Amino acid sequence: MTDQLTVIVLAAGGGTRMKSKTPKVLHRIGGRSMIGHVLGAVDSLEPAQVVTVVGHQRELVGPHVTELRHDAVLAVQDEQLGTGHAVRVALEALGETLGGGTVLIAYGDTPLLEGATLRAFADAHHAAQAAVSILSGIVADPHGYGRIVRDADGGVEAIVEEKDATPEQREITEINSGILAFDAAFLLDCIGRIGNDNAKGEYYLTDAVGIAHADGLTVAAHAVEDALQTEGANDRVQLAELGAELNRRIVTRWMEAGVTVLDPATTWIDADAVLASDVTILPGTQLLGATVVAEDAVIGPDTTLEDCEIGEGARVVRTHGQLAVVGPRANVGPFAYLRPGTLLGADGKIGTFVETKNAQIGEGAKVPHLSYVGDAEIGEGTNIGAGTIFANYDGAAKHRTKVGRFAKTGSNNTFVAPVEIGDGAGTGGGTVVRRDVPPGALAVSGGPQRNLPGWAQSKRAGTAQAEAAAGAGRDEQSQNGRGLGADGPERAES
Ligand code: UD1
Ligand code: MG
Question: What are the chain's domains?
Answer without folding.
Answer: 5-230 (3.90.550.10), 258-443 (2.160.10.10)
